[in-house]
Design goal:
This protein is of the alpha/beta class. The protein has helices at about 15-25, 50-55, 65-75, 90-105, 115-125, 140, 145-155, 165-175, 190-205, 235-250, and strands spanning about 5-10, 40-45, 80-85, 110, 130-135, 155-160, 210, 225, 230-235. It folds into 2 domains: about 5-115 and about 240-250, Rossmann fold, CATH 3.40.50; about 115-235, 3-Layer(aba) Sandwich (Rossmann fold). Strands 6-5-7-9-8 form a 5-stranded mixed sheet, with helices on both faces. The two termini are about 25 Å apart.
Length: about 260
């Protein structure tokens, strides 16, 4: 029996839309509207504090509070499985609090973890890759979100940019004049060039694949599965496939 899918959007807004689109892109149907899996998207950006800012300052409300309120709405709507298309929101101090609040409220919906799903995808489809680069926010780097999990699993060597590179990637995401959060559709050339610059650095360091570890970054590489010699790993697309598989795996297209 197919189960409804829930998306906690607004983090950022276009990342939620991108996940919704990729769910449909990866869905196999009989060609009718009625055969599509039900997908609910709750996008309430004003209720969810910036994740990187909170992780840096630990001031103000934990973004988990707003994320939970969105999850509660989705649960009440009937979503059986929920995802947050924001990598930084999966930092332990935020993600674990969302899970705890959902448990206390009696939410029955399952909350997927974008980092765990990405690692699982790499094991299944990129098992020969040894060295993987990570593009993300400063919040993702500072909390060692991917680094700690990948180290625990022991399969891949994860490589971060140097400090200058980390700041460059963060700028490409957050800059108000050209960053992908401010300009998601279309993405500005300046932002994409900063991402490409760091991928070049990874390639020069023998990195074979690069995780686009902020859900706005794939917006800059739409329909691109590689950049020069490096394959591009899109956690948003991976999350979309995991949501379909949990809902009803017969709807999942083959890769």
């Amino acid at each position: 029996m197919k189960k409804a899918i829930g998306i906690i959007g607004g983090v950022g807004p276009y990342a939620g839309l991108d996940l919704n689109k990729k769910i449909f892109d990866n869905m196999k149907t009989n060609g009718t509207d009625q055969d599509y899996l039900d997908v609910y998207l709750v996008s309430q950006s004003s209720d969810i504090a910036d994740r990187s800012t909170y992780l840096k300052t630990k001031e103000g409300a934990n973004p988990a509070e707003g994320l939970f309120r969105a999850a509660l709405k989705l649960n009440e709507m009937g979503a059986a499985v929920i995802a947050i298309p924001c990598n930084t929101a999966h930092s332990v101090i935020i993600f674990d609090r969302v899970k705890e609040l959902m448990r206390l409220a009696g939410c029955k919906a399952k909350l997927l973890n974008i980092v765990e799903e990405t690692h699982k995808f790499l094991e299944d489809h990129h098992r020969d890759v040894k060295k993987i680069g990570l593009l993300g926010t400063l919040g993702t780097y500072d909390t060692k979100l991917y680094e700690d999990y990948f180290k625990k699993m022991g399969k891949f060597e994860l490589v971060n940019p140097n400090d200058e590179g980390k700041n460059s990637v963060h700028t490409a995401i957050y800059n108000l004049d050209f960053g992908v959060k401010a300009f998601s559709s279309p993405v500005k050339k300046e932002a994409k060039e900063l991402f490409e610059q760091e991928i070049e650095s990874f390639i020069n360091n023998d990195v074979q694949s690069v995780i686009l570890g902020c859900t706005e970054i794939p917006l800059a590489f739409a329909n691109e599965s590689s950049y020069k010699k490096a394959s591009l790993i899109d956690p948003t697309n991976i999350l979309a496939r995991a949501l379909i598989q949990y809902s009803d795996e017969k709807y999942l297209k083959c890769i």
